[in-house]
Amino acid sequence: HVQLVESGGGSVQPGGSLRLSCAASGITFSRHDMSWVRQFPGKDIEWVCIIHKDGEIATYRAAVRDRFTVSRDNAKNMLYLQMNSLKPEDTAMYYCATDRNGKTRGQGTQVTVS
Length: 114
Hints:
Helices cover 0% and strands 48% of the residues. Strand 5 and strand 6 form a beta hairpin. The radius of gyration is 13 Å and the shape is globular. It has strands at residues 3-7, 10-12, 18-25, 34-39, 45-51, 58-60, 68-73, 78-83, 92-97, 109-113. A six-stranded mixed β-sheet has the order 2-10-9-4-5-6, with no helix packed on it. It has a four-stranded antiparallel β-sheet with strand order 1-3-8-7, with no helix packed on it. It is an all-beta fold.
């Protein structure tokens, strides 16, 4: 079965940076477009970005474009999210997912910006 394990979250001040990682297993990782999604307390899952299976193309929601960078290493079955210039409104639980809606996602990693 699919297993996605996120790590790298934490607490930072506004303007700070974090790098999230996601280790994937149970899937042929290189055949899947991968997404990062996030969830604010009491809110629905929100799509953040998606990277094509070959890593060449990535798309971001407007609120994070130019601050976040998604990447992947298909040889290691790893997905990453470099987050720069973090804002308090980025505070959320972050998940990697095999779909944009986050239906298949990991346990998440908390990011707190304050």
